[in-house]
Sequence to fold (203 residues):
Amino acid sequence: PTWVRLADGVDAPQIPGTSPSAGLFTGRAYDATDHQLVLFGDAANENGVSLPPLDTWTFDGTKWTARATSTHPPASGSMVFDPFNGTVLLVTNPTDVTPGPVPADRTWRWNGSTWRALRPPSEITLSESVSAMVADPASGTIVALARCCVARTGPASSIQTWTWNGSTWTLLHPATAFPPDLEFVIAYDAASRRIIAVGNQGA
Fold:
């Protein structure tokens, strides 16, 4: 079921009608161009293994809609709204796919009606799992934090910083690195014109 939190903090009654599967393992982002939440992903079994089919859903505040698309990303992953071209960006993650080779097409764009593989000249390496992405208006780029190098059954050895300029990914080398076991969220602070990360280091 879907519930909506009203402005006064009260939960409205659940939304009737069709909705995504309760077990849907998704990336999600708010599409500010079309004013709707976009979900993309698949269900997972009790072992965490992704199961077909891969679905795209949108929510406009009153109802869910299953979006039929001729093509779509080969796996779910991290999503963010890209305000610089008014679309949703998705990067698939190696931990989100069934056992086997990681799909080469990692960067995708949702334009409100269909998915398109962007196939940039420089891509986030296949061994990295993107944990968080945020738009940085100060630089005009999307900033992504990715865990490297992700083994299917092992911890990350480092966290890398990448930027997307609308056509390609660039690996940055900041002076300060995140602890590899840090669980975090990131957001853009308009007052300081900086990206702020808040995290909790696991035991």
Notes: The two ends are 34 Å apart (CA to CA). The CA atoms of residues 97 and 152 lie 10 Å apart. The first strand starts at residue 24 and ends at 31.
